Amino acid sequence: MATHRFLQLEKHLLRSEELMQRYSTGIQEYFDLNQIVSSTSTEEERFPATSTNQSAVTACVLPHHAVIREDKLTTKLRIVFDASSKTSNGKSLNDILCIGPALQNELPAVILNWRFYEFVFNADVQKMYRCIDMHPDDIPYQKIVWRDNKRCLQEYCLTTVTFSTASAPCTAISVIHRIADDEKQRFPLAENVLKEEMYVDDVQSGGYSLESAIKKRDQGKAALASAGMELRKWASNHPVLLESIPLEHQYSGTLLELHSDEVVKTLAKTASHRQYRYRPDYLQRYDDNEFIKRFRLSKPTFRYCSISPRTKLMLALRFYASGSFLITVGDFCGVSVSTASRAVKEVSFALAALYKDFIQLPSDPTQTVAEFFQIAKFPKVIGVIDCTHVRVQSPGGGNAEIFRNRKGYFSINVQAMCNANLMFLDLVVRWPGSAHDYNIFRNSRLKFCMEEGHFSNYFILGDSGYKQTHYLMTPLVNPSNAPERLYNESQIRTRISIERCFGVWKRRFPVLSIGLRISINSTMAVIVACGVLHNIAVLSKDPLPPMDELSLLEIPEDAAENNSVEINSNSVARNRLIQNYFARL
Questions:
Q1: CB atoms within 10 A of CB 257
Q2: Which CATH class is domain 107-128+167-271?
Q3: pLDDT, tens digit, 9 for 90 and up, residues 151-191
């Protein structure tokens, strides 16, 4: 089968001298890099007889062919070894290989994390699979047919991981993780880059400051170089991050800019940036006569027909307060359904834009720590964290089911951290209902702030759905003595603040309990807007609305769900806190 495929390939290559030259050059590169060796096995060695006189397969010959991509920046022609091709026994190599677990990070999480940073860079591991040697016992399963210098057909063995094999992704990512573990003493920042900020062979990293981005770039590059891997196709939004990178190793000579028209391809995705054009204010530009000439209405009439910002705000607030259909809210304010929809969307996005002004981590944690301490004497707490589901309608499309949560309805899983006064300190509104609470935290800006030491020696409290770390304190599953029971009681009484915060938030804005029947993007804006308004109401000391029929429609939170993760993976800090503090109370 493989020999027949090779002869067919050879006929095709001989039709184009240039194609034949490029293909031969690609195969020759394997020889130059010692990534291919001659096969010396005989037919008897390849199919040895067993005790039952049945032949056992100890080798496999892979067909190969060319894939031409003229749009590629580096490799225009790729040689593909077909491990899915059926052999003489009716099975392919991929049919019998163990694929292994899916170790690659989630692509949306990698991209979203990357966009958190102010200074970013991305690069590609050059020929990552071919940097990993195969075990000598496995090499015979990667044979190919090629002509030697005498133009005779000869079998050769590939000695490195082959791209098309089913086990290649798991093998390669396992090696990357091993590099991170082996080199974390010399390059501590590289561990997070290689484990959390890579998608297969693409590195997407950066830093909140230029200095931290440079350190992560250098340590990640050095850690990979220790295993003979090199990074290529470098791109960044700051020239300093590319100064030490040779020009031939860069993606292009330009920087990543939001207003750039250049299309940059990374992570197998192509993205170009949207352009925003200036829109003139014709009310200010033209006088009354010119305005009537162009728009057929006078300015006073035009203003009379327009909805005032005050009306738009009241319409949106009524929507938040009632959770009614847009037609009902529109009738309340005397406007059409489409006008009500545009008003809710416009006001929600405008309020959500105030996020950084009203939802922010404490600049001085002293007062926050003191207020939490008064609840149950738990020390050094700067916030309590949890997630809550906001019901949405099915978004439709092929990805609709990722919004279905473990309760069976469609939702957005909202992560929040609040203080003792029930004010939001952090709000993450972008994950579908099927996302695990800890996975949301693991990919949040809050986690990176804590790990980079922005709040060193302070704690966040979470339930058993989160992983115990040196800064995130979770309850003990089975407390065995008085100090441990005291720790659990104090932790739970303090952490309950976030549950109270969710209750107050959803009572103030019942639309979060009843559910939203608008687009996902508008839904996210409404949730953030309600968070901003909640903090404004707390700062203004507004009383809670009275209990009415809307409160009876609220979806209860199930705090007793068994949604825990492994909690004992890093309990040293918790044990130290129990021994040094709670044991002395």
A1: 10
A2: alpha beta
A3: 788 888 989 998 888 888 899 999 999 999 999 899 999 99
